[in-house]
Design brief:
Layout (H helix, E strand, L loop, with lengths): L4 E2 L7 H8 L6 E7 L4 E5 L3 H10 L7 E9 L2 E5 L20 H14 L2
Antiparallel strand pairs: 1-3, 2-3, 2-4, 4-5
Length: 115
Amino acid sequence: MRMTILIPDSPIRLADIKRLAEETYGFMIKGAVDIVANRVAIGGDYHIESSEALTRSGSTHADVWGFNIVFTDTGYTLEYDSLINIKPVLQNRSRLVEDDTVRAAMQDIITGLIV
């Protein structure tokens, strides 16, 4: 079964993201963010699915990073842990985003999208 992947072009309510998460994990949802084009893809079983949705629509692999939105009682937290984040050519050798500047850009884009 193919899961929904959403690339919102305007802010999206957290409640709508939670509904989308019910297709997969429920308590969290995976996504990818293009830190140059300021675009986010949310959904799918794997980060690579969201990443491919972005690259098919113009993003480049080097600009796309994976994240998780984990729902909490008071909102959500972001995790910067994904296999698509392993980018040795960009000096990121682990699943975690190691560069503070990249993490900050990711956070700004993702939090700016969720209302």
